[in-house]
Structure formats: structure tokens, C-alpha cells
Design brief:
The protein has two domains: 271 residues, 3-Layer(aba) Sandwich (QueA-like); 99 residues, no CATH class. Helices cover 23% and strands 25% of the residues. The two termini are 14 Å apart. 41% of the residues are buried.
Amino acid sequence: MIPEINIQDYNYPLTEDKIAKYPLPQRDASKLLIYKGGNISESIFKNLPDFLPERAIMVFNDTRVVPARLFFRRESGAHIEIFCLEPDNPAEYNTNFAATDHCSWKCVIGNVKRWKGDTLSFDCPADSTLSSMKLSAKLLSKEDRTGTVEFFWEGGAPFSRVLEECGQVPIPPYLNRETESVDIERYQTLYARIRGSVAAPTAGLHFTEQVLEKIRDKHIDIENVCLHVGAGTFLPVKGSRVAEHTMHREPFSIRVSLLRRIMDAAVPCIAVGTTSVRTLESLYYAGVSVIENGAPADISQWAPYERDYPYSTKEALGALIRWLEERKMEELKLGTRIIIVPGFKFRIVDMMVTNFHQPESTLILLISAFVGGDWRTIYNFALSHGFRFLSYGDSSLLWKTSKI
């Protein structure tokens, strides 16, 4: 049954002065809130390894943010912003990024009412080196503020380079400022590897090589999944009922070797960020799809709440692993729309590192589900103890205390 949740119950007073507009000079100098069993304390992020159990598994999202904001102009002079969300043709990220003269993307389009369907030119001075690419955009279809856009360019450069040369880092709209040089480095995790996100998995922004080394010293396995974060992460819950909110599909991948490690582990699993949580918790439902339908399938938004599942986590993951092994596949690639709200049964993640999220957001719902509804106690502590909020803000380490 889809939970009946009023999103207004997940509001809190977030004023402008609490929002971190810029990162601190040192990644690991941010504050760290520690929540375990209803008790709260605070420290500094560089001390995070001191609070982690030895020989645990720690899972990071190694997606890489692409400079996905492009600015074009009409012959009339009107400026149109195009924010690339996900590849359309070719639909696979690597193939799309390798295209050398044209490709299409699903996009959010700023000032879309002023785009009458004519071909747009990239907004750069005529004598600049970028002008030689002759980057242009053609509108294939549109619906409200989103649409499918085909890009054309000259010179034979792959589209990944076109974005690197012409695009801007898509910092969150709630920062209320333009992208600056500091964002190029700092709105990217130290371990970012696979291009595809239009928003950073911000829990990972605090990690430094020194912190990672201290984690390894505790014999903690550092593992990676990849979930490409979509612009849907910025979308507020519309209306008062969470049941009316639509989650966007986000592609993810995970290695079979990590699936085996998770299934066999008798140690805590620590997820770095809500994107890692959603990836890991989606695996159970992919396994259920193998058991019941013979193959893994994308995870639907409300799958966890539709019925009681009779399979153990080990049974579901085992079925998923066998399906991949029989096909000699080393990696699972799927999409998930999963929404985690109070009442969700966590099957894999025991601890979470995460930042402080927007009021009335799906991420607040996830936090509430993880800490058994105690999110407001945590956020009240953070508000009253000078914590900085949102993407460039401070961090927290949470132990699962969910009540089913």
C-alpha cells in the first residue's frame, strides 16, 4: 500500500543564512553530526574514521558531474539555457559522449517559451576558439520546461569534450548564484570517475585522501557503485501528498563482485550519500524481479510498498548474482525510481553519511525512514548548533534505527 504522507509534516525553518553558498577551504573541515540510538554529538569530518566500525563495507557513488548547462541564443538575441539531463540518442552514456558530430539529450530548457523551434547557436563571441565548433541546438520535442534537443557541431571532437569546453557546472539552483571557478573543482568528489551526473552526490564532497587512508587503516572495504544523479534531485514534492510525487529514473551500475560481498557480509554496510542508499536498497527488488519474472527490471517508485515480499535479502541477491553469472556479466546495469519514505524496510544499509537536505524534499523522507522518524531531533540540533546546510554544507553520520 502506498503510504499516506503529508509533505508539510517534513518542513523546517531553513533561512538563507543557514545555507552554505560556498564550500569551506578544506573539504574535511566541515562539521560532523553523529546520531546513534537517539543520541546526538558533534565532531569534525576529518574525525569520521574514529566513529566507524572496523572491517565494515563502505560504499561510495563514483559518478562524475558533467558541465551540463549550455547557453544558446536565437537570431533575435534571446538567450536560451539548455540543461542536459540524460542521453536520448544514443541512449547509452558512453556511446553518446563519444559521438563526434551530433547527438540528442533530454533537457530542461530555460526561457523555453521564447524558443519557437528555430536552430540555436551557442552563445560565445564570434572570434573565440569555441566558435570554431559551430555548436548548435535543434528542438525535437517539448513538454512544459523539458524537451528533447539535438546538438550539432563541427571539428570531430567527442561530445564529452564539447561539454567540457562549452558547458558550465550545474550547481544547485538554491545557491542563488552563477557558477564560479571554485565550483569546477569542489562540486566534484575526489573519487569521481564515471561521467553522467547533473548533480553531485554531495555527501562525498567532504572526503580527502587523508580521511580515506584512515578509513583503510581500520580495515574497512572501500567499494563503489555508480548512480547518475538527475535534475529530479532538485525537484520539490508538488502538492501536499507524497503519493502524487513522481520520481525520475536514474541509471545505476554495480559490479557482481560487490554484490557477492554484500550478500556474504556479516559486517555493517555504510552508504556514503542518499544516492548510494537508493542504489543498494534497489538491489533487493532487482533480485525479486529475477525470482518472479526471470530477469532483473528497472525498480518502480512504489515497489517496496505494494506488498509483503516472502524472500530474504540473501535469496533475492543470490538470484540476481546467479542470473548475471550465467550470462558471464561482470556488472549489473539498471534504472531505479525508488522512493524511500517512512515505513520502508532497509535490507542492506546499516549506516549512512549524508548532508542536510531541503525542507519538504524526498531526501528528508529518506532520512526520516532511516532514523525511525527522529529526523526533526537531528535537524533541530543542527539548526541550533551552527551547522551549514545543503550541498556545500556540513555532514552527518547516522545509524539505522528504522521502525517497521
